[in-house]
Amino acid sequence: MNPIVIIGSGLAGYGLLRELNQRHCPHPRLLITADGGESYYKPALSSALGQKKTPADLAMAQSSTMAQELNAEILTHTRVTGIDPANHRLTLASGETRPYGKLVLALGSSPIRLPLTGDGANDVLSVNNLDDYTRFRERLTHARKVAIIGPGLIGSEFANDLLQSQRDVTIIGPDPWPISTLIPQTAGEAVRQAMAAKGAVWHLETFNGAIEKTAPGYRTTLKNGTVVEADLVLSAVGIRPEIQLATQAGLKTQRGIVTDALLQTSDPDIYAVGDCAEVEGRNLPFVQPLMIGIRALASTLMGQPREVRYPAMPVAIKTTLHPIITLPPQTKEGNWTFDGTPATGILGRFIDPNGKLAGFVLTGSRTPEKTMLMQALAA
Q1: Domains of the chain
Q2: pLDDT (tens digit per residue) in 331-376
Q3: By CB count within 10 A, which of 32, 156, 250, 359 is most buried?
Q4: 3-class DSSP state for residue 219?
Q5: In Å, what is the CA distance from 33 to each residue of 37, 63, 108, 245, 272?
């Protein structure tokens, strides 16, 4: 019996393996990962400093422990270089091939790389996994001034964490306000003010892709003429689904690996789940849809097909200096209304043309009102 093979050891890969084990899956299971296979909670990377956790603290279990607990074979530091759907075989970087019965792509996402120039460009860091984070923390040991390129969700969470470890933080980017793809301007301004009160310097709607080395660190001159000096530069401009392996195998891809509601790709024996998947046109790189996906997929792989059905899923953003919960509206037709002040907290409601609540944002002291808004949404 050929195994169920999972490529990727992130929340999706290990989560699916755990679900299959709990359901006493009779099929052999193999998980292949390009890194060390440590089990860790990826969202914790952007809040570990404030919690005084080291990279070692974040690793909840080593791959050997996971293999034993989940009754699976786990290959670490092993890169899959090719998929042969016709023959149900994988090619590894070593040249070895492995068979599969069903294949699950839990490939995650990759940081968007800016086309930076200057002699300091290659020193700019991105954090997308535990290995990246370990390198970041090593460099951070000798860095007091940190420049973050990207004022979105990831950049804002890292800025929040760095501020709580007494770093001088500058956030740079072309965005009009913080986290602008997920929250309206009024809420973004509340976050900006809260972090500025703790010392953050924001340079929005301006950027220059040149990073130059200096004797103490790095310098970038923004388009508005402002010079930013830093000991370390972190790029956090976003992530994109990892689709290269699927594309090379001839699977249908768009932004992500295209799947139906069963998480089945254009090949009936290959599935995709987590950040890499585009499920019926939606790519949702957050924990809640990932968890819904792995539970449904485990059922499907056990012979009980179960479609993914997403409820309303608010996103909690870990800017603890001014926390945010947001449910972005799925339509642009409508208007925002706001209560509260940026200093204490904002409640924003997005009302559609029919007068119905279609989205919301809560910041600061207003976050406990999530339950009330979720009830109103369901009414």
Answers
A1: 4-110+239-301 (3.50.50.60), 113-235 (3.50.50.60), 329-378 (3.30.390.120)
A2: 899 999 999 999 999 999 999 999 999 999 999 999 999 999 999 9
A3: 156
A4: strand
A5: 6, 10, 11, 13, 15
Closest by Cα among 177, 270, 283 to 240: 283
Q: What is the DSSP string of 232-244?
A: EEEE-S-EEE--H
Question: Six-digit token pair at 144?
Answer: 């007091």
Q: Closest Cα partner for 104 from 278, 254, 297?
A: 297
pTM over 0.90: yes
| Residue found by looking up tokens 């899923």 in the block | 313
Q: Print burial letters for 62-98: b (CB count within 10 Å at least 16), e (below 16).
A: ebeebbeebebebbbebebeebebeebebeeeeeeeb
Assess contact for 170 and 146: CB atoms under 8 A.
yes
pLDDT per position as a tens digit, 211-223: 999 999 999 999 9
Edge-to-edge strands of the sheet including 227-230? 212-213, 218-221, 227-230
How wide is the angle at C-alpha 290 spanned by C-alphas 286 and 296, nearest 5°?
155
Gap between the Cα atoms of 157 and 152, Å rounded: 8
Say how many CA atoms lie within 13 Å of 214 toward its Cβ. Answer: 15
State the number of CA atoms in the 13 A half-sphere of 329 facing the CB. Answer: 18
Q: What is the mean pLDDT of the chain?
A: 97
DSSP string of 177-194?
STTTTTS-HHHHHHHHHH
Could you read off the pLDDT of 89-116 as tens digits, one per residue? Answer: 999 999 999 999 999 999 999 999 999 9
Residue 100 near residue 92, CB atoms below 8 Å:
no
